[in-house]
Design goal:
There is one protein chain. By secondary structure, this protein is of the alpha+beta class. The protein has 4 domains: 116 residues, FAD/NAD(P)-binding domain (3-Layer(bba) Sandwich), CATH 3.50.50; 88 residues, 2-Layer Sandwich (Alpha-Beta Plaits); 36 residues, no CATH class; 118 residues, Glutaredoxin (3-Layer(aba) Sandwich), CATH 3.40.30.120. The chain is built from 9 helices and 22 strands. It has a 7-stranded mixed β-sheet. Strands 6, 7, 8, 9, 10 and 11 form a 6-stranded antiparallel β-sheet that branches. A hairpin with a 2-residue loop joins strand 13 and strand 14. Helix 4 runs antiparallel to helix 5. Bound molecules: flavin-adenine dinucleotide (FAD).
């Protein structure tokens, strides 16, 4: 992706991501109590209580300031709070998965993801570490009661139908990874209720078309983490936490809309298949579409422009707006050249003063801004960015950019517009006592 250290998308198995996250948690977080089930949740305006059943079968009650329900689509927290899970089940769509070593004539090397579309079946093949392939088929659902995972023979038939390769033999990898799934498209009526929050599949759920479930859940948790920490520590006003609800619901609804338009991963009928066969070769040659596809997969196009947390001047046409994610541009600060993302931090906000004129830096402005943000408890990093007229991609000059811990722009104001900045800080940050 442009403006990042990462050249392209990576397809990583969910269990690999989960073990990486577990490792990080071990390093930075508190102990996780495994094999412990939440059996009841009571949430009040100031605190919450959860009844936990441990591996020994004993139940105990813990009191806490916050509860985050991230316990999947059947979320106890969501049900306990009576929050509706709005939406419906997808009918006539079944998804089958089997990881296997294939013996077939289709040249599946080099290992890349492939999509095969044929009448009534779409097949996605993903290479998995060790040389096997994850076969992933979407098809209509003639037997909605059937729950059993697919046998190798059933998947062989679907692979043959999708690829046109008649003789396919699949040898499942061990431990066996096979499942048959149906889907609901649903979103919780709200993601915050007093001291309780919902994240991941507890908050939103859809058919895994486009592979966005885990990604969207993780982005939501990333959005929630810094907001919850700031409100919990008394750095930010309580209203900041409500913006998790509005921003994440908007993001999830956008994914749901995009997923419904994604005809490439749904089993097509004959007219759709004919249209795909006609148009796809042209579309695949378009570098603009390839760029758009990569942006969509990466989620870098996501913005929070409509959020209550995004304020200020609109700026030039097509330029950076409040709510946008800041690109990782090359910048020059008082300490020399560097990358913009190296200035930002998840632990604090960042205030960038982008000078209007490299020849005439305004030294007093930086000191005034620091005095202003020092009135609030929230930690803020200050950086003066020197404009570079020779660079194509630059930050808008003569501006104040207040960047959220997650790298999205909260406020865009003119370099001298301290009133706008103060109004923003008064609304979201807590003043020192
Ligand atoms: C077939 C299929 C394919 C998919 N493919 C993709 C893909 O390619 N890309 C992608 O991004 N997403 C994909 N997804 C979606 C992705 O798997 C989910 O979005 C993701 O797992 C949600 O994570 P979560 O932590 O919110 O919930 P879960 O993964 O459901 O985790 C919830 C956890 O909470 C535990 N739990 C439940 N109740 C309690 C309780 N009362 N007390 C304590 N613990 C509890 C559960 O045991 C579980 O460990 C796919 C989903 C399916 C079904």
């Amino acid at each position: 992706m442009p403006d990042t250290a990462f050249p392209g998308p990576l397809s990583i198995e969910q269990d690999t991501i989960e073990s990486l996250l577990r490792e990080q948690l071990r390093r930075h977080g508190p102990d996780v109590q495994w094999s412990t089930e939440a059996v009841a949740v009571r949430v009040g305006a100031q605190e919450a209580e959860v009844d936990l059943r441990g591996p020994d079968g004993q139940t105990r009650t813990v009191g806490c300031r916050w509860v985050v329900g991230c316990e999947g689509s059947r979320s106890l927290v969501r049900r306990s709070l009576g929050i509706p899970f709005e939406g419906e089940q997808r009918t006539n769509l079944q998804c089958l998965q089997l990881n296997a070593e294939p013996d077939w004539s289709h040249p599946y090397h080099p290992p890349v993801t492939r999509i095969f579309i044929n009448h009534g079946v779409t097949l996605i093949t993903d290479p998995v570490p060790g040389g096997a392939v994850r076969f992933y088929a979407f098809r209509p659902d003639p037997e909605p009661q059937l729950e059993e995972p697919p046998s190798p023979q059933e998947m062989e038939t679907l692979v043959a139908a999708a690829t046109g390769v008649p003789a396919v033999r699949l040898v499942p990898t061990e431990p066996r990874r096979a499942n048959r799934a149906r889907f609901h498209d649903r979103i919780a009526g709200r993601l915050r209720h007093d001291r309780a929050l919902l994240a991941g599949d507890s908050a939103h759920l859809w058919a895994p078309i486009g592979g966005r479930g885990l990604n969207t859940g993780l982005l939501g948790a990333h959005n929630l983490g810094w907001k919850l920490a700031a409100v919990h520590r008394g750095w930010a006003t309580d209203a900041l936490l409500d913006t998790y609800d509005t921003e994440q619901r908007a993001a999830a609804l956008e994914v749901m809309r995009a997923m419904r338009r994604n005809i490439l991963e749904l089993p097509p009928n004959r007219p759709t298949l004919a249209a795909i066969r006609l148009l796809l070769p042209h579309l695949l040659r378009s570098s603009r579409l390839a760029r758009q596809g990569a942006t969509l997969l990466s989620d870098f196009g996501r913005n929070h422009r409509r959020s209550a947390l995004s304020s200020g001047k609109r700026g030039e046409r097509g330029g950076l707006r409040a709510g946008d994610r800041l690109p990782d541009l090359a910048v020059t600060t008082d300490t020399g050249p560097g990358r913009l993302h190296d200035l930002l931090s998840y632990q604090r906000w960042s205030l960038l003063l982008v000078e209007a004129d490299a020849e005439q830096p305004d030294h007093s402005a930086a000191a005034t801004l620091r005095r202003l943000t020092d009135r609030y408890v929230m930690p803020v990093g200050h950086f003066r960015i020197h404009p570079d007229p020779h660079r194509h991609h630059t930050l808008p000059t003569g501006t104040l950019l207040l960047v959220r811990p997650d790298g999205h722009l909260g406020l865009r104001a003119g370099a001298g517009d301290r009133r706008l900045l103060k109004a923003y800080l008064d609304r979201w940050f807590v003043q020192r006592g």
